[in-house]
Each structure stands twice: as C-alpha cells, then as structure tokens.
Amino acid sequence: MKLSKRGWILILLFSITTLLAFAGNETETNSIDAKSFYSLGDFFRLLGSLGLFLFGMKYMSEGIQKAAGSKLRQILRAVTANKFLGIITGVFVTTLIQSSSATTVMVVSFANAGLFSLSEAISVIMGANVGTTVTGWIIAIFGKVDVSDLALPILGIAFPFLFIGGDKLKNWAEFVIGFSLLFFGLGELKDSVPDIQQNPDVLEFISHWSGMGFWSLILFIIIGSVLTIIVQSSSASMALTIVLLSKGWIDFPTGAAMILGENIGTTVTAQLAALIANLNAKRAAMAHTLFNVTGVLWMILVFTPFLHMVEWIISISQGLYCEVMGKGCDLDPNAIDLFTKDPSVLADVGPIGLAVFHTSFNIINVLLLVWFSNVMAIVVKAIWKGRGNMGTDVLKYLDSGMMNTPELAVIEAQKELLEFGQLVEKMFKTNLILLFRDGTKKQKKAAKKILGYEEECDEKEREIARYLADLSMKNLSKATAYKIRKIWSIINDMERIGDMNEKIMLSLQKNEDIVVFNDQTLAGLKTVTNKVDEAFAMMMNILDREEDTTFSLLQVKNLEQEINEMRDNLRNAFFIEIENSSISFQTGLVAVEVVSNLEKIADHIYSINIEMLEMG
User: Fold this and answer.
1) Running DSSP on this structure, what letter comes out for residue 193?
2) Which of 191, 223, 231 is nearest to 55 (CA)?
C-alpha cells in the first residue's frame, strides 16, 4: 500500500478507536432483536477491524523485509534464464514477506537495473501469484481457532524488544507484533460480521444478485476487483471474503468469483506505481495484469466444473485424513457440499474451499501460461512501445515503487552513485582536452560538453536528494537510515566535483588567448592530473565493488596526502617561474588556480571514498 507513515498511524488510531467505541456496546447488541439489522456501529467496527488487519499485515511485511532485505536481493538476483527457477523464487519470496506487491516492486526494480530480462521478470511475477495464496491458507486454518486471545500476550512479549537490542532483534519484533495485530484484527473482523440467521433480509438480497447465472459471476468478479482496489491489499479482501463466507453472507461460488476479481484488483496497485516509473516498470506491471486477466478469462469458461473439482479435492483429502488420523472426522467426506446454502456447513468447509480454489487456480494458471512467457513479453512490448527510460532521464535505477522496500531502495541508490561517479569522471577527462589543448575543434566541443555535464550533475543531485528525502519518511532501520545519510553526503561531494570541473573550464576558456604554458609548467600540471586521475580510478573501484574493493582506508588517506603536498610544491614552483619570468603573471595565476581546483576535486573524492568504505 502506498501510504505515508502518518497515513498508517491514522489508520491504526481509527481502527483502535472504532473497536473500543463499539466493543463497549456488545452486551446491549447481543440480543436477536438488537441484531435484527446491521447497525452503523457494526459497520464502523468492521472498518476498524479491517484497518487493524491491514496495519498488522503491513507491519509484519516491513519487519521481515528489514530483517532479510539484503538476503531477498541475493535470492532475486540468483534468477537466471531458467523460468522455473524464477517461479520458485517468486513463490518463496512472496511466501516469506506475505506481499505479492512488494515482490513485484522488487522485480520491476531489478528488471529496470538490467539484472534480468522482462521474460525472467514475468516468471518471478507468476511465482508471486502462487506465493500470495499462502495468506488464504493462514486465514482459513487459523480462522477456525480463536487466536485473538493469544495475539495480545504475543504483542506484549515482543513489544519491549522494539526498544532494546540491535536492529535485527527490533526488525523481528516488528514482524511478530505485525503478526499478532493481523490475527487480532482477523478475530475482530469475524466478530463484526453478524450471523446471517439474524439478518435474513440480507440473505434474500444477496440471493437475488447471485441467481443470475453468468452475469452473477461477472458481477462478483467486479465486486472483488473494486474491493481490492479500495483496500489496496488482496490479502485483506481475501480475509473479508472468507469471513463473509464463513458467516453465511455469501455462498461458495460467489466467494470464488470475488477471489477471481481480487486477482485482477491486486494488479491495479502495480499499474498505479508504474504510471510515473520507467518503461521497464510499465511493461512488468502490464505483464502482471495480462497474466492475471488471462487466468480469470479461462477460469470463467470452466468455472462450475472447476468448483466441483475443488469439492472433490476436499472430499478426498478429508477421507485420507480420517483414514490416517482415525479421529477429527465429525464431517463425513462424502457429505461435503460446497454449493450448499447452509451457513453452518459453509463455516466448516467454505474457508478451506476458497483456499484450495485460490491455490489450485494460480498453480494451474502458472503451469498453462509459463510456456508463453516470451509471447507475453512480446505483447507487453507492443503495448508499451519505445526505448529507454520513460520516467526521469537522469536516474537509471531509482523509481518510486521501490520505496516500499527501503533496504533494497538504498542498494539501488548506491548503483546510482556509480552512474554519478562515471559522469564526474567524464567531466574531468574532458577538461584535460582544454588543459593540454588537444586540438582547436576538440577544445570547442569540450567546453560545451562540460556545460552539459554540469547541468546533468545538478539535476542528478536534485533528483537523488528528492528521492532520499521521500525515502527518509519511511519506517527505516538504523542501518538503512545511516546509509541514506552517507549517500546524501556523497551526492553533495559529487555535485561539488562537477562545480570544480566547471570552474577549471571557465578559467581556461576565459584566458585562452593570453595563457601560454611552457614545458615545465605543463609537466607540473601533468603530474597532478595523473594523481587526480588515480584518485578517480580508486573512487570508481570503491563505488563499483563496495566492500569488496581492493583499496584500504590507509591507501585512500596516503593518496590524499600526496596530492596535498603536490599542490603546495607546484604552487611554489609556479610562483618561482613567475619571478624568473619563465611564464607570464596571468599564466602563473591560472596554473595556480587550476592546481587548487584539482586539489579540491581530490578532497571531495577523498570524502566520497571514506564515506563509501565506512558505509560498506
């Protein structure tokens, strides 16, 4: 869900307030007379419990992502051209973080970074669709047990760990707290939906809409889609569907149709995130939509036979369980009827039936469409034509969707630093053409190039800073917040390197006609530019390889000291040349200014190298 931290806090406060406000009236509303209608209080309690469920799901997902963010990145990067490995990866990651949206965002980001192709990204998205069905099983199985009684004690045990211990312990505490809030919300959700026997008019109303055959199927698919779009979570809409079925408010075919709609609705979130993203992001989001919509279309054709197959699977499973366990078989396997209107029967088998339907549908859909992943890639490329980045032209790796996973967003920001480093190094190399006068035509082009590079530097610094500012508003671990501060400092240093390069260019261009360097002055300038070039090479190595760099902190400091001493020696040498009339006064001043700016560039490179090594 794409809400600010303040938005999530408001949801939590609203949820708790509504639950407290209407829980106190439970005694008064227990009678059949009071429950003969669905009151405004019931509705607000439903909203509050749904909000608590959503907050728990979000907090749990964020906790596990912060605890295992880098590991998730390694798992996703292990995806190769083997599409089946991609599917397994999608299933595993989504099962772990309980959010197909978060997995899709990661996939979009890594596809954008060129770590794997669109076809491979599609295979991971297919796996994510299967992984998200685990939520239905959790709700169906635990929904039969009153786990809300355990939710508060678990929350009480985990809560102190938010304030003690290291980041890892706090992240796992967030996961456990989110897990307990999720089930507390689920318990309240069940209690906020009254029994259908006490509201017969509603049953008659729903029966009217569910008795139109094919059009009822289409109607409830639309309802499921709209519900998921509103709550921005297929897990929440799945939970609500299961609760409504277990309470008898809807029958099994209606619940199955709503789940099909939820499969479509969950793709809208990715589509919205991709609106302001780049071309690869748009294509990945479209592939997700195409995959889910195609699945729903073929399911509509075989809907009723497929539901009978689900009923058969549950009957066989129940029979095997009875034979093996010899107990717990109050429900006769041969008497299982998912098409019944009896709420008491639906309460027993309905939730499991929806979980089986959801899982079997997604698995079969993957098995059918995995062979056409390359065709799907061609189709989405035809839908979204064009080349390159359709978002900002300045940033290559960063997009807004990645902010939902801050730990991975920081990793992508570090890749953006490498691009920034290549840009400022290119500026420096271009300046050497002006300094050593490598041809008149090249000099004129060099000056224009440097001005263009400087504008790009300024824009890149602004865009990355804006991205980091938005990212800082997220719920961050200490390690991630520390890295963001370091990256912020580094982009400032890189922008200053761009400024220094521009100053060198303007000084050389302004005095082009009156400055004449002799061989001795050029030799001195050559020694310092070689050292600065060495510093750039060191910086690029550290930016590219992070903690695996071949350079140590001592080497970085020694090179900086060498350049400082070289600046002092050359400045003295140039002033001696001016005194000896070997060069003109103006030439000497320009040479001193160039050396001073080169040393300042080296200072900023030194600062970048230190920040990167400390961050690693």
Assistant:
1) S
2) 231
Q: What is the pLDDT of residues 160-211, one digit of tens each?
A: 877 776 677 777 788 778 777 776 776 676 666 555 445 545 445 555 565 6
Q: In this predicted model, what pLDDT tens digit does every residue of 328-342 receive, in sequence order?
A: 566 666 667 777 777
Q: Which long-range contacts (CB under 8 A, 24 or more apart) does 383-386 make?
A: 383/283, 383/286, 384/279, 384/282, 384/283, 384/286, 386/279
With 0-12 / 13-18 / 19 or more C-beta atoms within 10 angstroms meaning exposed / middle / buried, residue 269 is: buried
Alpha-carbon distance 438 to 442, whole Å?
7
Going by the DSSP 8-state scheme, the letter that residue 201 receives in this structure is H
* Contact (CB, 8 A) for 370 and 126: yes
Domains of the chain in start order, with CATH, are: 5-383 (no CATH), 400-615 (1.20.58.220)
Taking each helix axis as running N to C, give the angle between helix 167-192 and helix 40-77, from 0 to 180 degrees, rounded to the nearest 10. Answer: 140
Residues 6+ apart with CB under 8 A from 293: 264, 267
- CB count, 10 Å around CB of 330? 7
Is the overall model pTM greater than 0.85, yes or no? no
Distance CA 141, CA 353 (A): 11
Q: CA-CA distance, 342 to 350, in Å (whole number)?
A: 11
Q: Give phi and psi for 391, each to the nearest 5.
A: -95, -135
**Can you give the three-state secondary structure of 362-397, one letter per residue?**
HHHHHHHHHHHHHHHHHHHHHHCCCCCCCCCCCCCC
